[in-house]
Amino acid sequence: MAERKVRVRFAPSPTGALHIGGVRTALYNYLFARQHNGDLIFRIEDTDSHRFVPGAEEYILESFKWLGIHFDEGVSFGGEHGPYRQSERREIYKKYVQVLLENGKAYIAFDTPEELDAKRAEIANFQYDASTRGMMRNSLTMPKEEVDALIAEGKQYVVRFKIEPNEDVRVNDLIRGEVIINSSILDDKVLYKSADELPTYHLANIVDDHLMEVSHVIRGEEWLPSAPLHVLLYRAFGWEDTMPEFAHLPLLLKPEGNGKLSKRDGDRLGFPVFPLEWHDPKSGDVSSGYRESGYLPEAVINFLALLGWNPGNDQEVMSMDELVKLFDLNHCSKSGAKFDYKKGTWFNHEYIMMKPDAELAQLFKPVLAANGVDAAAYSDVYLAKVVSLVKGRVNFVKELWDQSRFFFAAPTQYAEKDVKKRWSEDTPRIMGELITVLEGIADFSSKPSEDIVIGWITEKGYHMGNVMNAFRLAVVGECKGPHMFDITELLGKDETISRIRSAVEKLG
Ligand code: GLU
């Protein structure tokens, strides 16, 4: 058989914010598609109208835009296999439901919810399947005329898949190997409901994967139980030759303890489980997002890529292009991946360190504005230098402010405990001398100023720590920050001296 073109899809249901696990699924599909010069499709599975949430589709699209995951076709991207929104494909599904009915692979059932409940009460572990369908109200047990009459009358019905019992259904999973399930444990799934004239997830999913020529279905482990049914549906249609390969990704687990990662874990431990901030239109609740929390998209991508996959060695920092080269479904783990959110913070720090200072400075501008600083009053070169001096101390862009505020305003207060420790009676006199020394420095850049000031302290026999810390206290407002002479170089001679003067005035 000729090699098939790789075509994969990400097919969310627009039921709310996209969970971070869904983002990982989309990422793996994207990496796989790019690696094989294939196509990535964005399909919206909105056949369950009760669960539709306005804004969800836009939210999902914006998330991928931010993360740099691009689609080749689909909702909002166009393409030749559309429409890509399932609610716009009703007629297509109706046609295929008819095909199954005609070749005896499906049947019509009239049982009302009450009748089904009654059966459940009567028969323990009731399941609508080969063992029970003979006693239910359906087109297998009723004469054709009666069925037609009921339909003509407008009675509601569903179409069920007629699953043959006692058959071992094999699913070849690229991650899990062969998974075998006996068809007797499956129920006759509802494929279509006359009430809303819509197919259920299973039918729409298979028909679309087929028509959209999907070659690989890469999705979360929670869909593994549906896979045997999907295999049977492909067969019922006679499409086994184009059946996609399956790969079910491991679950994302709680950072600590057992079980699936949930939004509550995020709330409790203080990390987002959504890519972007989400405003729930119904409850009004706001959930935090990676973007608004200050994560860089590259860091989020790198972090997610390693939740369930590794490159086969201990390399951790990988760009999107490297991930495309290295990604391999064979290196995905079968067991769940612990959501180590602290690792996410670590990645963010790494990506901040790798980012060119000029770019980081641009990201810092809105933070400055939020803190009342007119960023336009500073040159890009100045801002880039500032961030270069403090970025090693932060995990998030917004934390740059706390580390660098003294570059934008002279201190108005001085940290009390530092004053107590470093500002003694003799300090104003020594600071006066320091001012004279600084005034005499011709080249105020870091190294030459350092040599001169240190030389003076040594020559005078002053206490190095006390003098330098008092100097820092006067300039910064507290005894922390980057290398002192890198600070003074950037502030310049006049500003440095004026800060020492005002500290002497204020602290006496
Ligand atoms: N609509 C399903 C979801 O929300 C798609 C599952 C699949 O990929 O088959 O994840």
From TrEMBL:
A motif ('KMSKS' region) lies at residues 260-264. One of its GO terms (cellular component) is cytosol. ATP binds at residue 263. Keywords: Aminoacyl-tRNA synthetase, ATP-binding, Cytoplasm, Ligase, Nucleotide-binding, Protein biosynthesis. It is found in: Cytoplasm. It comes from the Bacteria. GO terms for molecular function: ATP binding; glutamate-tRNA ligase activity; tRNA binding; zinc ion binding. PROSITE patterns: AA_TRNA_LIGASE_I. Residues 5-343 form the Glutamyl/glutaminyl-tRNA synthetase class Ib catalytic domain. Its EC number is 6.1.1.17. Residues 359-503 form the Aminoacyl-tRNA synthetase class I anticodon-binding domain. It is an enzyme of class 6 (ligase). It catalyses: tRNA(Glu) + L-glutamate + ATP = L-glutamyl-tRNA(Glu) + AMP + diphosphate. A motif ('HIGH' region) lies at residues 12-22. The keyword Mitochondrion does not apply. GO terms for biological process: glutamyl-tRNA aminoacylation. Catalyzes the attachment of glutamate to tRNA(Glu) in a two-step reaction: glutamate is first activated by ATP to form Glu-AMP and then transferred to the acceptor end of tRNA(Glu). NCBIfam families: gltX_bact. Monomer. HAMAP family: Glu_tRNA_synth_type1. Belongs to the class-I aminoacyl-tRNA synthetase family. Glutamate--tRNA ligase type 1 subfamily. This is Glutamate--tRNA ligase. It comes from Bacteroides acidifaciens.
